[in-house]
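Chain A, query sequence.
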Amino acid sequence: MHRTTAEESARRAAGTRASAAIIMIAPFAMLAAFVYHPHIAFLPDANAVAHAVHGDTLRWAVAHWGLGIASALMAAAWVAIRENLRDAGENRWSGVALPFLVFGATVYAILPGMEFTVLAATRTGGDLVPAQKAIDSWFVPTIMIAGITNAVGLFFLARAIMRSSVLGDGPKGMVVAALYTMAVSRLVPIGPVQFYVQGLASVVAL
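Chain A, predicted structure.
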């Protein structure tokens, strides 16, 4: 019995460390990908995209590959945060938030996949501007769906944090403010807001 209890404690400790690592790594991975992404003033902008891809195809590929990986890590981080809140006794609003957050992160990961279209175009001698404009009709609704579902999930997550005892009043207010900033910034189609404000807010929140 003692051995079983010790093994269970060890498993829980390992799980806690893994959750903490994911929660810490995910926002930094997202911020790094955003910072490395070539500057785009407004989203979408076919001419700016063409200029960025022509300037450095490797950077374009690495940045978007990184964004896809970071978005997957963020989905895992939301699951870990939900588990922490549940263990702390908040089992209502965090449970409502989780499907929206995971869905939003999954849809957001589609966007960097779309942006490999222009990379393929430049590698095969295609015209980048028409190629980018061809995917804009899919890019815009995809980023809006990701933004709206993400905002809904962050609203419920903030509600869960406010109603739980997992944080003190000072950190709780800072985290909730950062979550709201994340929600709003993803809905703003301005490059620096979408990339840098959202990325920094995710680091503060998580």
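The chain has a mean pLDDT of 92. Residues 128-163 form the longest helix (36 residues).
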